[in-house]
Amino acid sequence: MGENIYLFMIIALAVLAITDLIVGVSNDAVNFLNSAIGSKAISFKTIMIVASVGIAFGAISSSGMMEVARKGIFNPSEFVFAEIMIVFMAVMITDILLLDFFNTLGMPTSTTVSIVFELLGAAVAISLVKIYSGDGNITHLTDYINTDKATEIIIGILLSVVIAFTIGAIVQFFTRVLISFKFNEKPKWVGAIFGGMAITAIIYFILIKGLKGTSIISPEAAMFIAENPELFLLGNFALWFVLSWAATTFLKWNIYTVIIILGTFALAMAFAGNDLVNFIGVPLAAYESFLSWSESGQLASEYNMKGLAVAVQTPTYLLLASGIIMVVTLWFSSKAKNVVKTSVDLSRQDEGEERFEPNYLSRQIVKFSIKASENLNGLIPVAIQNRINEQFIKPTSYAQKAKAKDQPAFDLIRASVNLMVASVLISLATSLKLPLSTTYVTFMVAMGTSLADRAWGSESAVYRVAGVLNVIGGWFFTAIVAFVAAAIIAYVIHLGGIWAIGALLIFAFILIGKNYLSHTKKLKETKEEEILQRAESSSIQGVIEESAKNIANVVKRANKIYSNSINGLAKQDLSSLHKNKKQGAKLANEIEDLRNHTFYFIKNLEEAHIGASNFYINAMGHLTDISQSLEYIGKVSHKHVNNNHKKLKYNQIKELKQIDIKLAEILDNTYHAFDERSFEKIGNILNNKQELYDLVSQKISLQVERTRSEESSPKNTTLYFTILLETKDLMTATMNLLELYYKEHDADVKPATLD
Questions:
Q1: Which residues pair with 74 in a beta bridge?
Q2: Which residues, other chains included, contact 664 with Cβ-Cβ below 8 Å and sequence gap of 6+?
Q3: What is the C-alpha separation between 198 and 235, in angstroms, rounded?
Q4: Can you give the three-state secondary structure of 316-372, one letter per residue?
Q5: pTM
């Protein structure tokens, strides 16, 4: 049985390694996809192909084992094989759970930091067990743990966050001042200089970070680059300056697009070549340990693991297999796209729907920054300020005339700077042997460049700062949770052996499966609801035609939300009412986003079509009234049941169902009228509206009589009246909306749209 448990652990670690590769790529894809996707420099398919080639190339050229997994955090000579296997098992179980948790939230985190703190936590737990069983002292912990390395890593994390943000902001500011938003109008030599600098930085990054220590670059070449970095960089700049100028002048290439393609490839390759070991380093170290122990003939509790201190090259076929898994995950992981979306949303140039709510700290930071900016402006001459401000004026094409989903989040200059600065910082830290997280650097550079580019205006600053604080908070949360969770799991495995491992594995895969199903269901629901689309047309008939789909969407969802509220009250189903309340809030938020678009809509109108703005504003007002009534009905229904108040009586439920059936009939007819663009049907709906009004009024009168004679529950009465009155408001808003469309629609007029 003794040897079987370790064979089982090796098999389990192999499965965990594959799972970790999948969740790891979902998290780290943001590092190399952010700039290309955000700028829309090239098609999504091309981005994915470039990234896939980079990953495959990086995986094959990977320098192999991650030394930190073998000897960087703990001293292997202080542990025996049985203890090391517990540490490795605890690390891998914790790692897949932690990364999957962050991927589900759509938050980028660091696989390097995760693995390091998991190793630290598990090693500390087993070390304390050894110290306690040997009657040792807590001070002996330093014999087992490499405290210098752990301290260096923590300092590296803190410094990388601040330095990446600051350098990104400074470089982007001066780049924008020199090149401006109208970079396409600049002389060819300006782009050539920028191209020479950026491509040189990225090539140096590939050689130092991506190919360092591999067989692809010869030791002589690596030594020459290391000994003569200035000469290498100067020669590279001259070469790429000439090539950039020739490509833009004769081939008419866009040099910024070339930079983005090359930078995406470089970061993808570096990710696979360096971060791959975060996922397979621990299982491979465990496998090497198992082979070494099997050949020794010693007991697992006696075999010393000092052999881990020796570096071992990873077999190429394992690297190739890992690369294939990573590429497949990149193409098919919806969670990877979700993590990228967070980074792109927080750095986009224009306003829009914000993912994060402002908090006290974000508000104070913005207030302090505004005051500091005002004080700084007082020191700069007005003429220089005006000259700088001119460089930050965006071209008119940046106005929201194109479809929102087709707009780039930021321009090619910012995407190029993101890739260039991230490349330089990571290669510089690697050459200095400083611990660094690729995720932290790329994310914070993107945040710094967006700040310098004035993307965080007064309309969005508090939201963006709150988002960045959330992500940074998540990073420190990662480190703490990784340490604590790995320590607890290691101790549980120490106590429970194979039974504990089996239970933990089952728990881990059930949780990952549950998260996957939940994420898939959420995506499906979003798809079914079809998020409301912004109107772009410039005439009333154009807006009617475009917004018909939105109205049909709102009416369909309104019908469902109202019915679910009544059915939830009838069954006292708290879970159903809770989901329904969230759906009501979601609809209200989407309609609010449409109202926020009013500014851009009016800006796009020509004087001849100014009536379209009044139509759009009125339609938005009626939609808001509908959503507010639905949201309030959902909220009070959930609150009533959640507080365990007295149930509605049978007669009350029966009356509400009568209203629900009649309302459903009207809303269903409305849905078909708008979905089929049969606006003439609206007249029939309006002719029958009085019937429902009379029904609601009748129920109000009945409840008044009941309250006077028999009703004894104030909460019950309040809820019932609230639902009836909100239903009346809901009907009024719906009928006003229908009258607006019926009055303004003219089938003979062809809808006018913007070019």
A1: 145
A2: 559, 562, 563
A3: 14
A4: HHHHHHHHHHHHHHHHHCHHHHHHHHHHHHHHCCCCCCCCCCCCHHHHHHHHHHHHH
A5: 0.69
Q: How many Å apart are CA 72 and CA 589, to the nearest integer? A: 49
Alpha carbons 527 and 580: distance in angstroms, whole number: 17
Residue at token pair 């109107």: 535
The runs of H, that is alpha helices, within 400-460 are 412-431, 438-452
pLDDT tens, residue by residue, 383-408? 888 888 888 887 654 344 444 455 67
Q: Which long-range CB contacts under 8 A does 124-127 form with residues at least 24 apart?
A: 124/483, 124/487, 125/90, 125/486, 125/487, 125/488, 125/490, 125/491, 125/494, 126/79, 126/83, 126/86, 126/87, 126/490, 126/494, 127/74, 127/78
The 8 Å CB, 24+ separation contacts for 204-207 are 204/232, 204/233, 204/236, 204/423, 204/424, 204/427, 205/266, 205/270, 205/423, 205/424, 205/426, 205/427, 206/266, 206/269, 206/270
Sign of torsion over alpha carbons 451, 452, 454, 455: negative
pLDDT, tens digit, for every residue of 698-755?
A: 888 888 888 777 766 788 888 888 998 999 999 999 888 888 888 877 655 544 443 3
Q: Where in the chain is the domain with CATH 1.20.58.220?
A: 540-744
CA angle 274, 504, 10 (to 5 degrees): 55
Partnered with residue 304 across adjacent β-strands are 80
∠ CA 74-76-79, nearest 5°, is 105
Check if the beta carbon of residue 37 is closer than 8 Å to that of residue 412: no
The 3-state DSSP composition of the chain as helix, strand, coil percent (nearest 5) reads 80, 0, 20
Neighbours of 733 (CB within 10 A): 21
CATH fold of 540-744: Methane Monooxygenase Hydroxylase; Chain G, domain 1 (1.20.58)
